[in-house]
Specification:
Arc Repressor Mutant, subunit A, 10 helices, 208 residues, single chain, 2 domains, Rna Polymerase Sigma Factor, Chain: A
Length: 208
């Protein structure tokens, strides 16, 4: 019981109005406890919705996909073994729900017409590293609008890597592409973002 008292343990988090901790809610939800599942939904719905919204840029689609993610959780919570944080496990499940939906709609996550660039064509460090120029020169609203305007394939890779923090090997596994292709898509997404932001800035200046 002493471990639950540590403030840095997410398992000890309690949502307002709920008495169950996350760990207790997980165990009870596995037994079919509806109240426990509601506790998990309350704890995690905002983050799941935020992820869905970033990947689709559509509020209605994000709401539907959030509900689908929690339906998947309801069906699969019995398979959670605690090998990773529950939030990480749920997060990955939500990503897979979104990617599956994009594929159903024919929005290829990695566009088929894109060829895999050789690593020699672009600097290796730029393909895998965070883009300091991009992050430092743009306000958050402007950046979000530019991300929303990216083609679906570019947007998915960009969100997974630069926003959600997944490594290229993880993205390749989730999306179903090679690591080199993931790096290539991220590089192209960043170039497209710069182009979109530059255009937006020019339009804003001309309207003054």
């Amino acid at each position: 019981m002493s471990a639950a008292g540590k403030g840095d343990l997410t398992d000890a988090k309690k949502s307002k109005g709920n008495k169950l901790t996350e760990t207790e809610a997980i165990e009870r939800a596995k037994q079919g406890d509806a109240e426990a599942f509601e506790t998990l939904y309350t704890l995690h719905k905002r983050r799941v919705y935020s992820l869905c919204l970033r990947m689709t840029a559509n509020t209605a689609a994000a709401e539907d996909l959030t509900q689908e993610a929690f339906l998947q959780l309801f069906r699969k919570i019995g398979t959670f073994r605690g090998e990773s944080a529950f939030s990480t496990w749920l997060h990955r499940m939500a990503v897979n729900v979104v990617l599956m939906q994009l594929r159903k709609k024919g929005l290829s996550v990695v566009p088929l017409e894109e060829t895999i660039e050789t690593e020699e064509e672009t600097p290796r460090k730029e393909l895998g590293a965070a883009d300091a120029k991009l992050a430092g020169s743009v306000d958050r609203l402007q950046l979000q609008r530019a991300i929303d305007a990216l083609p679906p394939g570019y947007k998915s890779i960009f969100v997974l890597h630069d926003v959600e923090g997944y490594e290229h090997n993880e993205i390749a596994e989730m999306v179903g592409c090679s690591i080199g292709n993931s790096k290539s898509q991220l590089h192209k997404a960043r170039l497209k973002l710069r182009e979109l932001i530059k255009t937006a800035k020019a339009q804003k200046a001309s309207n003054r």
